[in-house]
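Reopening this one. Same input as before:
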Amino acid sequence: MPTQTRLQLESKTPEEMDAAAREAVRGGLIGVAKAGCVALVAHTAGMAYSPIYRGLTVQFKVFLSMSVLILGGSIAADTRLKEYEHFVRRQKRLERDGRVLREYDALVAAGRVSREKE
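Same output, byte for byte:
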């Protein structure tokens, strides 16, 4: 019998998955914008200073620029998604710990458990 991965064990609702997808898209768009600035500066510098770059075809220049955009968007989306998943895990851990603490306080209030060490 195959073992379940951690992702399969964590029950994710469609709302949680939609929120994660939105964060990944937001990160991708930010990454594309940053990479676009880099590509624009590189293109401008290449046109101004490099006779080799000026001799390239327009199609290849577009390919180079698009490659930079895709790479920047992919890296930023992945980074943003990892940060979001870490945030969600922290929130769930805080909720779980708070629930355990409230249950313990209820047991102490009922007199079933003593807070003093034996």
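So the earlier flakiness isn't reproducible anymore. For the record, The chain has a mean pLDDT of 89.
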